[in-house]
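User: Predict the structure for this protein chain, please.
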Amino acid sequence: MNRRMLSKEDEEAAGDEIEVRREDQDKINRFSRLHQRELALEEELKNKNKEKEELDDLEGELELVVDEEELVQYKIGDSFFHIPLEQAKEMLGIAAAKLVKEIEALDDKLETIRKEMTGLKVELYARFGKTINLET
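Assistant: Here is the predicted structure, written as structure tokens:
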């Protein structure tokens, strides 16, 4: 069983080892931290989008309520309160608008991180070529 990480050509090319300078290591470390941050933000964004979808479903359910005077249960923190339908719709709209702003902020952060990661990739691949793997 012959297991190889690099092809023979790549191994021969790697014979001309490139010295890793302090600034190179700093860039590699920065890329790694950015990648971890990107993964965390993607997970948070996924959760926020799921929450937004649930709020949209809830708004649809509230539209089906026939009696405008009926009290509906609304969760605030860990407790449920009986509030008028119109107030529940208003509070739901405010929560949805806040969530949309949070999602937009996360998208902006992700875009900034990805741009910086792309710049670091270009610099590091230019210096190390195939001897470094930055594919995420």
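The longest helix spans residues 85-128.
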